[in-house]
Amino acid sequence: MNDEKFIEALKNKDQKAFKILYDEYAPKIYGILKNYVRPNEIEDALQEVFLRIIRGINNFEGRSKLSTWIYRIAVNVGKNYSRSYSKEVEKPMDLDSDEPENFSVQPISETNVKKEAFNDINYQIILNIMEQLDKDERLLIKLRDIDGLSYNEIAEITDLPLGTVKSKLHYARKKLKKLIEEANLI
């Protein structure tokens, strides 16, 4: 289905189109939101992004690609959550509480457990290293190097000039490379 037909199906409240939308974009939106939203609130933020998409699809005029419009919504929702955190007073963790924290257990494939375990470890190390970058640097790397968006799309999503996107991405990659080298992964 081409973009125009897909957008039209979304505007007509086609359930199959919404399922396709969710299946295709939920992981990408989740990746963006991880840069802004606390892990225990990320599902709420993800729902908010999809609600905004559903409510706003009829106003989508096609001046940008659908993906760019969706990423922009995700960034805005993430920034709203991030702003709300800066207004909160940090409360200390209750170590005596019997309440479990939000832990996520990912099942490991039975096919090659050793290989997947090493891949998971390396992936986790890289994620930990990326946490040392600021959220804007992580977002730029994700949008360009993981999601494969063009510089123009990133500029539109982040509301930054094209030259600034290129420059910031260059320095973010350079910083990430240095951090990876310091961790002896290269």
Automatic annotation (TrEMBL):
Residues 124-176 form the RNA polymerase sigma factor 70 region 4 type domain. One of its GO terms (biological process) is DNA-templated transcription initiation. NCBIfam families: sigma70-ECF (TIGR02937). The keyword tRNA-binding does not apply. The keyword Nucleotide-binding does not apply. Pfam families: Sigma70_r2, Sigma70_r4_2. CDD domains: Sigma70_r4 (cd06171). Residues 21-86 form the RNA polymerase sigma-70 region domain. This is RNA polymerase sigma factor RpoE. Keywords: Sigma factor, Transcription, Transcription regulation.
